[in-house]
Amino acid sequence: MLRVHEVTTAYQGLVAISAVSIEVASGEIVCVAGANGAGKSTLLKSIAGAERPRSGSVSFDGTRIDGMAQHIITSHGIAYVPENRRLFPRLSVRDNLRLGSYLFRGKSDRDAPLDLVFNLFPRLSERLDQRAETLSGGEQQMLAIGRALMTRPRLLMLDEPSQGIMPKLVDEIFQAVKRIRDTGLTVLIVEQRMAECLEIADRAYILQTGRVLMQGPAAEISGNPDVRKAYLGL
Q: What is the pLDDT of residue 189?
């Protein structure tokens, strides 16, 4: 479904990822893990159109999308939840969700994905009239993911979804990611919480200083003694 081939991208004048290649097949959860500053967020931004690669290519379903505007990439079926969520803080939960369905404005089934969103995150249905800024960090992450699902994506990309969330809600977010995959969506997730990420993923890539250090089945990487010592603290 997604093919990133030898992509190099600079961020604020410095090369953040160098000749990175990854592939994501339909129906997979693929985890990109690594320490802070490894280039994980830049990789997602390069796919989503938020950053333009210096070289290399990004293809989605066989169509090159690198160089396309971000909203055009979204219309192709890629939803991107950035690290800072980028909610509209003074708007209600309901309005934030409806803004996610802007591609379908005017259509009678514009709100159809709400059933999926509320099934995944029931507490959002209880807070429809609350402003986004009044939600907890975990609830804001649920809202950000819910808004992305309103675009009816085939590929959902999540940037550090556990960041700024109370520990008791982290597992809830990761379980929701598994349930999203079970609905038929494909998920690409970047995380510093490598253990949790590897637990739900089918395959994984480890980035280190902007390059792919290791790749393979998530279970295999999780069981690698070097990974366990360097990244999992085991």
A: 97
Q: 117-124 long-range CB contacts below 8 Å, 24 or more apart?
A: 117/146, 117/149, 117/150, 120/145, 120/146, 120/149, 120/176, 120/179, 120/180, 121/145, 121/146, 121/176, 124/93, 124/97
CATH value at residue 70: 3.40.50.300
pTM: 0.92
* pLDDT at residue number 106: 63
Which residue has tokens 């939600």?
Answer: 135
Distance CA 124, CA 85 (A): 16
Q: Provide the sign of the torsion angle of the four alpha carbons 216, 218, 220, 225, taken in this order.
A: positive
**Predicted local confidence at residue 234, as pLDDT:** 46
Amino acid 1 reads M
Q: Are 96 and 173 in contact (CB under 8 A)?
A: no
Residues 74, 76: Cα–Cα separation, whole Å? 5
Q: Which domain holds residue 135?
A: 2-230
- Number of domains within the chain: 1
Phi, psi values for residue 205, rounded to 5°: -125, 140
Low-confidence residues of the chain, pLDDT below 50? 234
pLDDT at 45: 95
